[in-house]
Design brief:
377 residues, Helix Hairpins, 3 domains, alpha+beta, four-stranded mixed sheet, HSP40/DNAj peptide-binding domain, three-stranded mixed sheet, 9 helices
Length: 377
């Protein structure tokens, strides 16, 4: 460990607050980071010193030990010795944790102990109409809850006596250096609690939690999309004595609908229309996602693939009273099994249509282009 005064290394006074320390650390860590100073050994050395200094001063116990004993507190099992190697508990992990921890939800609690129990992931499947209206869906999960026998304390006796974990010294985490990086994990002896129960509970064996199956009613908001993840804070695994519960993350899967296809806030509905109806025009009745019906006018001469827009008849928008639009996709049906009379009528119609210019503009234009193509060759 560097013998330089950590306050001097960070450029702060001995009365500096935790925020002042953090700001000074961030500034210097970014300034001397090896990625910004490739090949600069002096910058790399300073980078390590900055991490060592911040590792001492950010921890109240280590800071108090240094203020009283100086560097002697961390030598040869002194009162502040932590038993960690490498960057003295700092390093790249601290940079990412301090700069991005709050944004990613990974910030440490005081003293570096385990902040919460384990998170749980579950999946629920709902229909498209339930996604439109919103619903409550039961979710069954395998989890860990607070032990009822010891009220989650992990102790068989009421005194709840416990000693600091001999492996992590109460930190709840242990660190090991792997090359340039420092790997941190929960202490295997105490499971991250930082202490060992003297008289463990006979049911949970000192863990403070037991395995159980739970069923929760999860509120699915209207407008939710397939693949949405819903977070239920504190509904994850219990963390044991002195540790908050983890979170439950529910992944929502929306089943395909027989009639409607969703695209964001818009809905598409393919509606078959008789050939004569498409040619003559008319009115049809179509379903709406909210369970109602609406009438739609089919213009005369409507072609297959034509879309009709119904404003405000689409999907509900998440956390809003607004709705998208509904698009009717017309599919003109060609009759298959014809009676003798129907065939005669169609043949008569086709004969007359050939002599009526403009009645088949698409086909006329296409075959005109085909003739030009062959004439050009």
């Amino acid at each position: 460990m560097s013998k330089e005064d950590p306050y001097v290394v960070l450029g702060v006074s001995r009365e500096a607050s935790a925020d002042d320390l953090k700001k000074a650390y961030r500034k210097l860590a970014m300034q001397y980071h090896p990625d910004r100073n490739p090949g600069d050994h002096a910058a790399e050395t300073r980078f390590k010193q900055v991490n060592e200094a911040y590792d001492i001063l950010k921890d109240e116990q280590k800071r108090a030990a240094f203020d009283r004993f100086g560097h002697a507190a961390f030598e040869g099992g002194g009162p502040g010795a932590g038993g960690f190697s490498g960057f003295g508990g700092g390093g790249l992990g601290d940079i990412f944790e301090q700069m991005f921890g709050d944004m990613m939800g990974g910030g440490r609690g005081g003293g570096g102990r385990a902040r919460s129990g384990g998170d749980i992931r579950a999946q629920v499947e709902i229909s498209l109409t339930e996604a439109f209206t919103g619903t409550k869906a039961p979710v069954r999960v395998q989890t860990r809850i607070a032990c009822e026998h010891c009220d989650g304390t992990g102790s068989e006796t009421k005194d709840r006596a416990a000693d600091l974990c001999p492996t992590c010294g109460g930190a709840g985490k242990v660190r090991a250096q792997q090359g340039f990086f420092l790997v941190e994990r929960a202490c295997p002896t105490c499971g991250g609690a930082g202490r060992k129960i003297r008289n463990p509970c006979t049911v949970c064996r000192g863990a403070g939690t037991v395995a159980r199956e739970r069923t929760l009613q999860v509120a699915i908001p209207a407008g939710v999309e397939d693949g949405t993840r819903i977070r239920l804070a504190g509904e994850g695994e219990a963390g044991g004595a002195g540790v908050s519960a983890g979170d439950l993350y529910v992944h929502v899967s929306v089943r395909e609908h027989d009639i409607f296809q969703r695209d964001g806030a818009n809905i598409f509905c393919r509606v078959p229309v008789r050939m004569a109806q498409a040619a003559l025009g008319g009115e049809i009745e179509v379903p709406v996602i909210d369970g109602s019906r609406t009438k739609v006018k089919i213009p005369a001469g409507t072609q297959s693939g034509h879309q009709l827009r119904l404003r405000g008849k689409g999907f509900s928008v998440l956390r809003s009273a607004a709705r998208g639009d509904m698009y009717i996709q017309v599919a003109v049906e060609t009759p298959r099994a014809l009676s003798k009379r129907q065939r005669e009528l169609l043949e008569e119609f086709d004969t007359e249509a050939k002599d009526a210019p403009g009645s088949h503009t698409d086909s006329e234009g296409f075959f005109a282009k085909v003739r030009d193509f062959f004439d050009g060759r």
